[in-house]
Specification:
Elements: E1 12-14, H1 21-32, E2 38-40, H2 44-50, E3 76-77, H3 80-89, E4 93-96, H4 100-103, E5 121-122, H5 138-148, E6 157-160, H6 167-176, E7 183-184, H7 188-192
Parallel strand pairs: 1-2, 3-7, 4-5, 4-6, 6-7
Helix pairs in contact: 1-6
Amino acid sequence: MALAGVSEGTCVVCYDACDSMYASRLWWMLRWAGHAQTVVLDGGQEAWEKSGGVLSTAPAVNRPTGTLAVSKPLVSTVDYEQVRENLDTGNLQIIDARNPERFRGENETIDPIGGHIPNAVNRFFKDNLQPDGTFKPAQALRREFVACMGNREPAKIVNQCGSGVTACHNLLAMEIAGLQGAALYPGSWSQWCNMPGSPVAC
């Protein structure tokens, strides 16, 4: 990011053409690196074009190297051992961002085993969006996520998906809803299902 011209004070606007899936991941990664000045363009490229924004096909302009340095993370993570321990303690609520079919272990085409982490609940990341591809209003997101949280505070929520990408979409939606402090399980289902002895629910 420094090579792209980003410094400590640079505001990075993240966008994509994939329901903000990759933009949310970049937003999270920058915050993980300690960079607070980052936002996601609501609705992505489609919203930009609908609002009259123009697109360029010219090569990116080289910018002077920035001074961005990795600092204390602004987001939290949990690892495999913590998620495994939670099977016994039940202190955390795991929220799985994959589509319902993969959550149920159906039509798994990416990982060697289908299913989900026991006691996880499913919140498909695309349910965060309105038909036009923008995020739902904060009040609606808050109501829907509170229903998934099992009376737990955000700090007791862990978001996961297949490989830690679309879970960031749920994390962003929780931020919009005013539910800050949830963690990401970066290894997600791809790690879980490849670890010997990991229990699987369907």
